[in-house]
Amino acid sequence: MVIGFGISNKPLVKYLLDMGVKVTVRDAKSAEALGDEYEEYSSQGVRFILGENYLDGICEDVIFRS
């Protein structure tokens, strides 16, 4: 799981996808605020948990935060 979908985490998400990892991104922004990148990464299988309560119920095994 990656916390935040900013400048430093986007390359990480791409790397993890290229390695065949199932990726979950948690971010306080909405899908609309993330724009085209939300659509692009969602279509590649990234699961997004967005909005005010984006940190609720964290249960992933590995967490990346920068």
Provide a descriptive summary of the structure in words.
- The structure is a single chain.
- With 66 residues, the protein is an alpha/beta fold.
- It has three helices and four strands.
- The protein has helices at residues 9-18, 31-34, 36-43; strands spanning 2-3, 24-27, 47-50, 64-65.
- It has a four-stranded parallel beta sheet with strand order 3-2-1-4, covered by helices on one side.
- Strand 1, helix 1 (9-18) and strand 2 form a beta-alpha-beta unit.
- The radius of gyration is 11 Å and the shape is globular.
- It starts with a strand and ends with a strand.
Brief digest:
With 66 residues, this protein is of the alpha/beta class.
Q: Average pLDDT, to the nearest integer?
A: 95
Q: Give the radius of gyration.
A: 11 Å
Shape verdict: globular
Tell me the series of helices and strands, N- to C-terminal: EHEHHEE
Helix content: 25-40%
Based on secondary structure, the structural category is alpha/beta
Low-confidence stretches: none
Describe the biggest sheet? 4 strands, parallel
Number of helices: 3
Give the strand line-up of the largest sheet.
3-2-1-4
Please report the total strand number as a whole number.
4
The amount of beta strand, in percent, is 15-25%
First-last Cα distance: 12 Å
